[in-house]
Please model this.
Amino acid sequence: MVDKNTASFMRSLCMGQIEEDIILPFPEIPASEKETLRGVISSLEQLLGKRDEQFRKWDRSGEFPPEFVDELRQFGLFGLVIPEDHGGLGFGSAAYSRTLQEVASYDASVAVTVDAHSSIGMRGLLLFGSAEQRAAYYGKLATGEMIAAFCLTEPGSGSDAASIKTTAVRDGDDWILNGNKLWITNGGIADFFTVFAKTGKADDRGHLSAFIVTRDMAGVSSGPHEDKMGIRASSTTTVHLDNVRVPHKNLLGEEGKGFKVAMMILNSGRTGLGGGSVGGMKRLIRLATEQAKGRVQFGKPISEYGLIKQKVGQMVVDCYATEAVVSMVAGFIDQGYKEYAVEAAISKVFASEALNRTADEALQIAGGNGYMCDYPYERMVRDSRINRIFEGTNEILRLFIALTAMNDVGQNLRELAKSLEGVFVDPIKGFGVLSEYALRRAALATGINREGTTFTRLHPALKPQALLFEEGTRDMASAVDRILRKHGRNIIDKQFATRRLGDIMVDLFVASSVLSRVDAALRARGPEKCAHELEIAQTFSAQAKKRIRHNVSEIDANEDEQIKSLADHAFEAEKFPWDTL
Ligand SMILES: Cc1cc2nc3c(=O)[nH]c(=O)nc-3n(C[C@H](O)[C@H](O)[C@H](O)COP(=O)(O)OP(=O)(O)OC[C@H]3O[C@@H](n4cnc5c(N)ncnc54)[C@H](O)[C@@H]3O)c2cc1C
Model:
């Protein structure tokens, strides 16, 4: 029986355990929400369909007109995740993510506006709000009378969130907030701000707290609309807090636990960004296939050429895999799992990069047209780029994914070392205490199947892919062992190695999500009707396996030292140091 408070598919996998019960069967959108979701999706078509010209114009002008934001409010787009008894739709993560998918397939700026409100802006209230706080704000947030924003980043503090300088100082029943927040999505249209501030001593790094701040509080202001590369119509501004008096009852979560609050908000909200990425990819596949079939060169539609098929086929695999991994994480959240941070981070990394690849290749298929502003491709390339930067950069997330695994394994190795202490004094007794972990490790190293190290419940048609996955798991175990043995506690500074493990973990979790999704399809429709889904499983598993092998092989044989030396050389010169002239 899986304990949803502690179970994590990837953290178990790093210990050599394939916890099938966590990922099988593939999660479905709850039946109770499907009907409403269908209604929302068809009404969205009326709200956002046939507006392409306007979206293009607003991308150019770099702003939505206020009347359009009013239309989003009237539609109820700001109430997606707010409970029904407070006027929202009460969607769980899967239905929410599916809605964002639909919104993003029309326009990324609209999707980001909704995402910043529901995924991060008001999510702290959803996760940590007191009954009083919820009663005070849910209603207004559901109608969009209040739009929400998440205020963490500052001029001197981006990835290193613990280093923020905004302060909150207790004054009687209030807190006085001072500081400046940077690049806040919805900053110009929001009335509800989840603000992170330092509540510890000046040198007490990381002692943050979260507060609900509203625009009507004296001293709150936002700067001008930022001119940016993509998602241009979405509002991005600075937010300033100048001696803002915030009542103590607006503290969100526990005092001093603000860093945890911020991370839990970001983890829980990742299915919004993921859903948006899937929506963008589906639209790009529609555009690219239509374009390729209509464009004739050398006497044939370019869709008939292998190099174009290669791009479109890969887009399909990427899109299916992204939808699988995002749905899997949404399913974890909806089923009440608590430890899904690593999996959510993986879904964000994979989704944002798959969307980027797809947008780039779709533009390439459109050739010169793709580069022209009359076509949607260049805008979609620009719009998609932000996903690798915000809500945690993909570099930081890769480090987080891999370091969590190594920390877990490191702890187990320490326990293992402890249990082996007496082994030479009393070998028999020593073997008796060999932990479950050590036995699984031995099984993984030797390739001998032990309970829990193989798939047993996947559809038989997926047997070859299950074997590839199990091999990948063994590769990962050997990668973790080798990296830990090589670098030990210095691992924190060994980012080349950590990135490799991060990539391996991304591949394994996405592969497991694909297998689970195809398994569900096979069971529902039978292998004859799932030929293409089987091809996706075959392709993704084989591609992932090759990438994993490559990453493992690079742990010992690589050019890391040369690359580092060249980087240092460039840093020193602050330019490319050679010239042919
Ligand atoms: C359009 C837009 C909207 C945004 N919306 C919001 C919002 O609503 N709320 C909010 O709070 N913030 C928001 N942000 C801020 C965003 O979350 C940050 O930009 C992001 O966290 C990265 O911080 P940074 O830009 O300061 O980059 P930095 O942290 O300075 O990083 C620069 C580069 O260095 C890398 N890097 C940093 N540290 C390390 C390390 N230890 N090891 C290896 N590499 C490292 C990063 O991955 C990145 O590639 C938004 C940003 C943009 C552009």
Q: What stands out?
A: Residues 116, 149-153, 158-159, 183-185, 228, 236, 386, 389-390, 393, 395-396, 495 surround flavin-adenine dinucleotide (CB under 6 Å). Strands lie at 148-151, 167-171, 174-185, 192-198, 208-214, 220-222, 236-247, 251-252, 296-297, 300-301. The chain has a mean pLDDT of 93.
